[in-house]
Amino acid sequence: MDSIFSPPLHRQRHQFVIDFVKRNKPKKVVDLGCSECSLLQKLKFHREIELLVGVDIDGANIKKKMHGLAPMSTDYLQPSYDQLRIELYQGSVTQEDARLRGFDLVTSIELIEHLTLADVKRFSEVVFGYMTPVAVIVSTPNSEFNPLFPRPAGFRHSDHKFEWTRAEFKSWALKVCLEYGYEVEFTGVGQAPPGQQERVGFCSQIGVFHWLGGRQECNMLFGDDAEDVFSYTLLYSINYPSLHDNNILQRVLVSEVLYWAEKMKRNWIEERTGERDDTYTLCPAEGEGEECLRASERHMEMEDKQTAACGAEMKNPGEHQESELFWTNGEGQQESCKLRRCVSVPLAVLWSCCPKLSALSGSLSNLRHVLMDNPEVKLSQDGSAVLLNDQEQDLEEEEEDHDDLEDSGYAVCSHGAEPEEDWEKNV
Ligand code: SAM
User: Fold this and answer.
1) Cβ contacts of residue 387 below 8 Å, gap of 6+?
2) What's the CA gap between 108 and 124, in Å, rounded?
3) If you measure from the C-alpha of residue 12 to the centroid of ligand 1, how many angstroms do you get, rounded to a whole number?
4) 38 pLDDT band (50/70/90 cuts)?
5) Ligand 1 atom with minimal separation from the 157 CA
6) What are the chain's domains?
7) Of ligand 1's atoms, which has the minimum distance to the CA of residue 93?
């Protein structure tokens, strides 16, 4: 049946829901009779939705593709500000479950015709009377369209218990509105051929219900005295990575800080090649971008200030070989380590040069606060700068160590080289 429509009818139904979501921006959405979660798959990209739930009586159907709802690796690599939780339940729409109350949108796409008329009554009580969402979209076949199909008379699917005319659907919908305080608009998808639309209507008829009370009033319905019923079985739940999660925010901030600090350090050292000092200090400059990478000569001249900015205590100022570095560990205790040379990148420079950092942290003091608790970042004693090891020096030292080994007469293995066997000897 889908093939006579372009796009296919099931896609048109889902697109109808997506267009509604784009216009109305519901935060909590539940799809009843979600089957293999194909509508949920599309809705998960609409990040105004914070809670997306699917319910179906057939748990095996849900399980077939539910893992396709998991976040993608890009969601972890670049977490967004949006929050999204997905839950899938096995349960019947004829039963109440307190976890489904207070939603902004309930969708029931080609579901009610699979219920007996007694169950449709129960569906109305549960959805409109108990769950009381702000909006409900119900789609069901329009039997008046059926004669246009080149196929024998009968229902469109063997499991259908009924297929309503437009008048029958309207009669049920208006009764629901009267009973539970909703209003309804009728529409549909799957256009009839030109000239026949008015006579037969849409292939799938759709009722869009809106609760007549406001959202606030709706929430007030769920008082503490209401007894919570949990009749559904949770099959799957997942929280999408979000910058609202403090751990994730911290991880992203730290990696941004380290990335930018390292980048600035490298640019600056390149510029300063030949003018090596024991402690390099990158200072806030008037301008942005390249300007920020320029060290102020004033700082370079004032060794005391450099030392303070670096949080380093020179053990032997004459040789400038070793300095002691302090930072605060996760428990707020001060720790120290020996640094030969370090580069100090003021947080203020990082904050003003990297828009993402300022957007994520909100303020310089927030940023400092986050970094102070993180063992991956070494801050100066006053917390005003990030301290980085001078890696060029480390490399030089590694090379020296390497030379030492060679001199000592020990064999030196190159990385990745397999030890060579003497095959001829073995043979
Ligand atoms: N909504 C799906 C879509 O748009 O792709 C298709 C729905 S499929 C035609 C009907 C679904 O309703 C089936 O997956 C079936 O298991 C489910 N169903 C039938 N009776 C149900 C009940 N009492 N409660 C919940 N789901 C039910």
Assistant:
1) 310, 311, 312, 325, 327, 339, 342, 343, 344, 345, 378, 379, 380
2) 11
3) 17
4) very high
5) 9
6) 2-239 (3.40.50.150), 246-304+344-407 (no CATH)
7) 24
DSSP 405: H
- Say which range, 86-95, 131-140, 265-274, has the weakest mean pLDDT: 265-274
Confidence of residue 281 (pLDDT cuts 50, 70, 90): low
Q: Residue 297: is its pLDDT beyond 80?
A: no
Q: How far is CA 192 from CA 13, 150, 198, 423, in A?
A: 15, 14, 8, 81
Q: How far apart, in whole angstroms, are the C-alpha atoms of residue 307 and residue 312?
A: 5
The alpha carbon of 110 and the centre of ligand 1 are apart by a number of angstroms equal to 7
Residue from 65, 112, 114, 235 to probe ligand 1 pocket by mutation (most atoms less than 8 Å from CB): 114
For the segment 351-388, what is each residue's pLDDT rounded down to a tens digit? 888 888 988 999 999 999 999 989 999 999 899 999 99
- Spacing of C-alpha 160 from chain mean position: 38
Give the residues surrounding ligand 1 with Cβ less than 6 Å away: 10, 13, 33-35, 38-39, 55-58, 61, 92-94, 109-111, 114-115
Choose which residue among 96, 111, 117, 136 to substitute to test ligand 1 binding: the one with the highest number of ligand atoms within 8 A of its C-beta. 111
Residue 293 backbone phi and psi in degrees, to 5: -80, -15
With 60 as the cut, is the pLDDT of residue 205 above it? yes
CB 48 within 8 A of CB 27: yes
Q: What is the pTM of this model?
A: 0.75
Taking only the tens place, the pLDDT of each residue in 62-78 is 999 999 999 999 999 88
